[in-house]
Amino acid sequence: MAVTLTPAPVPVHRPVRDRHHRGVSRWVVLVLVTVGALVMLVPFAFMLLNAFKSPGDYSSGGPLSWPTEFYTKGLRTYWTEVNFPLKLWNSALIAGSVAVLGVVVSLLNAYALGIGRVRGRLWIVGLFLLANMLPQEALIYPLYYVAKEVGLYNTRLAVIIIFTVIQSAFGTYLLASVLGTFPRSLLEAAALDGAGKWTVLWRVVFPNLRPTLAVLLIFFFIWTWNEFLIPLVMLIDNQTQTIPVALASLQGDRLMDAPTTNAGALISLVPAILFFLIFQRTLARGITAGAEK
């Protein structure tokens, strides 16, 4: 009886691609991104250079010249003239309140639209998207008139209410899209356990959306912190103004102290950078969790 021997398969050694040896296209993309980042840092370099430059050096050499002395009077002038600690408190109070309230309102709205399945859901979500696209210039006069009528003009509460509505419009649109694809099995399991709608929201939906909500909280804070037009119109008192409005007050009709303005911009930028650095990992985890889902 003949026995047929089957030759053993010869292992094929595939070349291991070294991740350090990137293709030409990847190196081109990396170079372009690096150049773009450096270009975006140029204005900040000019701001840092002119923040410590005396008015005499600025007048004689212009914004591109190197300062002849380490001038810090502009920092002290901005700190005292605009009462920076008070402006910092106003900005932090308004931005923090808007961030928290905007996330809560967005979550409640999106829960009703995405999971509650109300009638006309698509029309309502489209309405929120349309409201988010409206320019602030079109809203400023109605907001001003209503604030004057109800007695909230020149108060921090008026700005908090306005930006809570504006930010929650975007948050509702985003979260409604996310909750529209929420696993129905989790909701059905919670319903079988006897959980009500409120319990489902805080025990099932909220833990799963926590990374996304953290990202929204950070974005709402930064966006509100940088707002200028509405606080400029609604806050006319030095006791209620925010940092961007205080920074704009340094510029007159025909005269501007460029070193003091750059020093103020530098001081005003520090809190936002610190906030971003503190919550950088939270932002990265939220974006990564959203990508995995």
From TrEMBL:
Matching entries from InterPro entries are given as: MetI-like, MetI-like_sf
- Which GO CC terms are listed, alphabetically? plasma membrane
Q: Which residues belong to the signal peptide in this entry?
A: none
Q: Does the keyword Signal apply?
A: no
Organism lineage? Bacteria, Bacillati, Actinomycetota, Actinomycetes, Micromonosporales
Alphabetized UniProt keyword annotations: Cell membrane, Membrane, Transmembrane, Transmembrane helix, Transport
Q: Where in the cell is it found?
A: Cell membrane
The record places domain ABC transmembrane type-1 at 88-279
Q: Transmembrane ranges?
A: 27-49, 88-110, 122-145, 157-179, 200-225, 263-279
> In its UniProt entry, what is this protein called?
Putative carbohydrate ABC transporter membrane protein
Which one Pfam family would you cite for this protein?
Answer: BPD_transp_1
Similarity comment: Belongs to the binding-protein-dependent transport system permease family.
**GO terms classed as biological process:** transmembrane transport
Q: How does it sit in the membrane?
A: Multi-pass membrane protein
